[in-house]
Structure formats: C-alpha cells, structure tokens
Design brief:
Helix content is 53%, strand content 16%. The protein contains 6 helices and 4 strands; from the N terminus they run H-H-H-H-H-E-E-E-H-E. Strands 3-2-1-4 form a 4-stranded antiparallel β-sheet. Helix 2 packs across helix 4 and helix 2 crosses helix 5.
Length: 146
C-alpha cells in the first residue's frame, strides 16, 4: 500500500504549479461531494452547479482545458484513500467547470442488460463526453441531463 502511495505522490510532484493547484482543489472538491452525496440528495446539490459568467474563448481551447481538468480530477480520485465512484467524480468535474464559466452538463445514464442494471455518470461539454469512450451515449440511456 505504501509503495503505491509513494508512486502516486511522485506522479503528483511532476505536475506544473498550475496543475498541482488544480489537483489539490480537485482532491478537496471530491471529498466534499463524497460527503455531500451521503447527506443530501443529488437534486439539492445541483443548486451548487450554477454557471458563472460564460467564458468567451475558442471552443477548442476550453475543450482542451476541460480534458486537462478531467485528467486531474481522475488523478485526484486515485490519490484518495476513499473510493470515488463515477457520480462523485462527475459532480466534482461538473462543478469545477461551471465555476470557471464552462457550460458543462452532468449526465446520468443506465444500461439494462443480461448482467443486470448498470448506471454511470459523466460530464458532457459541447457534445464531448469528457474522459469517456465515444460510444458512452450508445451504451447508457441518459436519464438526467443537467
């Protein structure tokens, strides 16, 4: 276990100051949503997802930033000792993007198959499912865009 933690810490040390700051923020936001989702409903939490002033920038630039932030949120989730399920990761990323003025959508989908009912949460920005395979919407029927 300690070897794994040392490896994770060494990966985090290789980040730029800017990415390190975003990683620390993502770690804290993940913990906040992990606890919040156990205390209140997702519907009540969605009030915190208010969009700040929408940024006026090249769409390719904010997709690039969103992809970078998604990777940092994923890295922060792996640095936690607590398991960070997809809903916690998606809520955290969605909140962080919207605080920066990027109009992301929280998507929750289900898939019914022979293996039973499966659910998954992810973040969509301009039709791009961040950090997900291209067929995510074909595999999961979206229940709640938001």
């Amino acid at each position: 276990m300690w070897k794994s933690l040392r490896h994770k810490a060494s990966l985090a040390r290789e980040l730029s100051l800017s990415d390190g700051s975003l990683l620390l923020q993502a770690w804290c936001v993940l913990l906040g949503f992990f606890l919040a989702l156990r205390l209140v409903s997702l519907q009540r939490l969605q009030a915190s997802f208010r969009l700040r002033n929408t940024k006026k920038m090249d769409p390719a630039l904010f997709l690039s930033f969103a992809d970078r932030l998604q990777r940092l949120v994923s890295m922060a989730a792996h640095l936690h000792l607590l398991p960070m399920p997809c809903l916690v990761r998606a809520c955290s990323l969605h909140w962080m993007l919207r605080r920066r003025g990027l109009p992301s959508q929280l998507c929750i989908g289900v898939n019914s198959s022979l293996n039973g009912l499966q659910a998954h949460a992810w973040v969509d920005l301009q039709g791009h499912a961040l950090g997900e395979p291209g067929d995510i919407e074909a595999r999961f029927k979206v229940l709640q865009p938001g």
